Amino acid sequence: MLGCCHVGACDLEFRILGPVEVSNGAGVLRLGGPKQRALLADLILNAGTAVSTARLIEDLWGDDPPPTARAYGRGLHLTDPPHSPR
User: Fold this and answer.
1) How far apart (Å, rounded) are the C-alpha atoms in residues 48 and 55?
2) Which architecture does CATH list for 3-75?
3) Contact 26/16 with Cβ under 8 angstroms?
4) What is the C-alpha separation between 35 and 33, in angstroms, rounded?
């Protein structure tokens, strides 16, 4: 575990050593694909500081980003874990 975020009634636990995961106490949240996980890990590593879009793009793609790179972070969503049948 790298850190926790306590916002209102939402306690999130971020894990970036090993697979990138986010847990809300009820289970591990579903994240996007590898690039979205890398973006989330980058933001977690830079928590508390402003990170420019240009820097995030360079961190994810280096010197050859796709034309859609600036819009990529908009697809990052944390969703509730699937409910287990009882």
Assistant:
1) 15
2) Orthogonal Bundle (1.10)
3) no
4) 6
Is the distance from CB of 29 to CB of 78 less than 8 angstroms?
A: yes
Of the two residues 47 and 79, the one the predictor is more confident about is 47
How much is the pTM?
0.69
Residue 19 has pLDDT above 90, yes or no: no
Domain boundaries, the chain: 3-75
Residues 6+ apart with CB under 8 A from 86: none
